[in-house]
Queue: 2 jobs
Job 1
Amino acid sequence: MSEATTNPRIELTRPMIVALLEDARDLPLVSIGARLGDVVALSVRDNASPDATLLDALTRGASRAVQVSDPIFDSVDYLAVAHTLACAIRHLCERLGAPPVVVLAGDRGRGAVGPAVAERLSLPHLGAVYGVEVARDHLLVDRQLGSSIQRLRGTPPVVLACVLPALTPTARASAPSSTVELLELEALHITQQELLHRRRFRPEPGAAVASAPRVLASVDRLADRLARDGVWPKRKAGGPG
Amino acid sequence: MANILCFMEQYEGELTPSSLETLGQARRLGSGLGATVYAAVALDRAPGYGEDDVLAKLAAGGADKVLLLVGENFGQPSSTVTWETHGPAVISAWDVSQPALMLVPASGCGREIAARAAARVGAAFLHDAFVEMQGGQLVLAEGRGERARRLPAALEFPVVATLPPGRYSAAAGDEEAEVEVLQVGAVQRFIAEPAPESARAPEPTLTKHDGHTLVELHSSTGLLTVALGKTAAQAQADFAIEGDADALLSGLFASHERSMKEGSR
């Protein structure tokens, strides 16, 4: 029996989930998304060869894989990529006549693309997402915050930047039943020119800055310091040392 | 040089060490570049007479100007920080200070806010950044070794950077700061509720680097690394504890386990 929602705005029976795949490390997003709805795996690449990560996404349960290709992505920054992804999501939604319910991104490394896509789509975003589930017409989102887990309840659409190592999927053995769909910038009504100016915002390879760690006297000093930053469980006063 | 804006994070009502370190580095940059340093802090109400501890700490920590971002949502524990709750406040602070450089501690809250703020204003973004003066020149960099990246130092466009805990020192002074109060509101679509009892944050993970012991804490975001023992791994670490690496590692995990048990009682 379907769990159709009474919310007239959002139908969560088989919603559209967009998984933003930067590289193979983001593949667990497909498994997360498949538990929520029909997954469209989406990426931008600097060449038009079907991306191996997207092919892998199809074998792991994505219903569609879409690749936006242009050589310019070799040289632009996070915001140009996010702008393109946001335009691609709008394009897919227009074709399907439905909004995405959840956009999934990996929360690792710089972690800039997910929040920037949310900004371009004017959606809320949540980072450090450790788990997500559908409960009737809303989402229950568990976030990792330092040493604790926080649960948030809310209604989609939303962009969720997910903590990936803890959500490693089981790979499917079957070959992909569909192919990677290629999109060019023109189809998204984007010109190279409007992305070009983001080239100078991109950090370029350069000499590393020498740094020395903060040396602490003991494990307890480290634990106390990190507890005050909220990233280490706080000991109760008077507890064993 | 225009202005430098620091977003200050609080945990259990106290400014975090990472925030004060971020402010301290902003102070050093501000002095080197002739920039005004703004510290923005979110509070549920403006401090009353005799309640100016936060203001005193921010002034002593290097702020020229303090932006008190006052909104009823900020009365919640710091762990509820999301872009929905704090984004409008951050953008209000940006609008007032018009910074060339915004610095945010690379904590969970910082990650929640920094990249989105950068996208909102069209800024360049650096994660776990090095921002310092070298030979009278500003250095804006991120990454170590072959992954090192740099931005042009001229600050021709705004830059948002997160700074990891421990990389820089807090400042200590006796100056006073101007204070401006900004009333901000927010609409929340995601509301915190009690997490299930079974919910528990992942254990710290351990990685080995060139045979040396390097512990990665909050590894999902690469928040910080700790070198155990006096090793070459220190060059990759934010914190180091010198001594017997194996014993320190055991102690670190025992400390975490002990704290988790005490916290769950």
Job 2
Amino acid sequence: MSTTNSIPAAQPALREQLREFILENLAHPKGVTSFTDDEPLMETGVIDSLGIFRLVSFLEDELGVRISDEEINPDTLKNLNTIEALVIRKREK
Amino acid sequence: MAYILQQLLQKSAQRYPEKLAVWARGRSIRYRELEQRSNQLAHLLRQNGVRKGDRVGIYFPKCVESVIAMLGVVKAGGVYVPLDPQAPAERIGYIIGNCGICGLITHAEKRRALDPVTLESLAFSLLTDEAPQTSKGSGVIPWTVLQEFPSDIAPSVTLTETDLAYILYTSGSTGRPKGVMLTHQNALTFVEWCAEKFHITSDDRLSNHAPLHFDLSVFDVYNALEAGASLYMVTEDLALFPARLASFLETQEITVWYSVPSALTLLLLHADLQADKLKKLRTILFAGEVFAMKYLQQLAERLPQTDLWNLYGPTETNVCTYYEVERERLPGMDKLPIGIACENTEVFAVNGDDEIITQAGGTGELYVRGPAVTCGYWADPEKTGRMVVPNRFQHNFEEKMYRTGDLVQLGADGNYYFLGRRDSMVKSRGYRIELGEIESALLSHPSVKEAVAIAVADDIVGSRIRAVVAFQDGIRLTAEELQHYCGTRIPKYMIPEAIEFRAELPKTSTGKVDRVQLAQESLQVALK
């Protein structure tokens, strides 16, 4: 399935890493085979109450960024674009 | 004393017209308006053919209109059927057909996803979101039409407490969901018990965490109405984010919270619960699954001022037993009781010799009798006959009792303790899951020859599901393809998280799939 990007990939390798993690660990077990970069992941049920923390653990353990409780919210984790933006922002600190 | 649910609203609207009745997503409605809008809705439904006993689906994400819809339907003499907004369209279409639903109160987007044949069968679709122009089709009605109808009084309908109020669909072992029929009396038996036990007053502020197709929400909605209290609905933007949810509890000054244990565990692990910020939270009720003792103990320590209650009961009876957590006993307990029967309900455990257990240590299947018990499953006399059975222990008159399928033990303390299931129903996040329904979904795929769904115990959610599948010769699918296929038939929370493929599934000596061996093998495999 083609991906429609509303924001050009700032760091393509990071984006692909995120996409792959979400696909394998969150989307597939929910029967979702693909998603676009701007598709809202919670609304479609890809990210549920457990998935949020698996994602955050991945960001922290594998990508080395520290996410505060306030940064875990419907805006930062809305879709692949916003998640990528969050990681980039945290890395720049 | 109210005998039908709408009387709870009517009385509170008279006493507290200006009080906030329902809050959701930053919007709210007062009691007077809730009474008026539901009256208008009831007239609209009658005009669109709804008659006593007719089923109306409620199919949209939780919001203020959800409660208007529930009350509007019962005021029209109808029976509301809350439909899971996250379930696949095929499943919703099945329920609409199975239940003979005559119309929907829904959102344009949800309606569009339904099968055209299903839509054809409906007399009306009332859209609560503002997009009437974009939806074409006979019977599409915009919410704005409500204001044309009388608001001060409900249509005249003759209802008694034995009339159905709502039908809740739950997972079915033979592959299709089953509609549990619940009367006004069933609901009020529970509501009145809660009002008395938990002393709900008009000063209370109740949260509603559970989805509306889940019977925990009956307490939230109707006990709020009963007392003239305020209801604060928890929607996904809060439910998924424990830190925000904890903030919500604090800001909205929630006094009584009722949810499945896993929601509390996630709050405990991922939000900073501070007793001094949650001074108003006087009571926490939990039900639907086993609460891991270590997490309950931590919660109890975090919130020393909050009463904690374990409530137990299937959808077929709502809550039938209860246990108030005895804090002094907690540290030494390895198992939490399900407690004793609620007042106005009777339970007993029946052993293998068909005797009622009276001695401590005895074990048996739990049965329930009394006005809380369902009259059965919609359009399913076979299942009704199996589960809602004549009470053979009652010698003075004929009555029914419900067999829960739960195995329990009577403790020395006089409380019942849950041991396990007779069958292959499991709980995950409080959701009832028949492994058979998952297997039916897998087996319905033409490439699947054999399939077994297995539950793996989990501290937080109760169970996680995996599957073992054998394909028809020569055909292969990936796990993702099969998971995706499942997603078109069963809700996401039922989809196996992992699927293992074998050429053949192990068999017992009688040629049946050896579930016990597969379950044992799966214990060795770690689920991430």
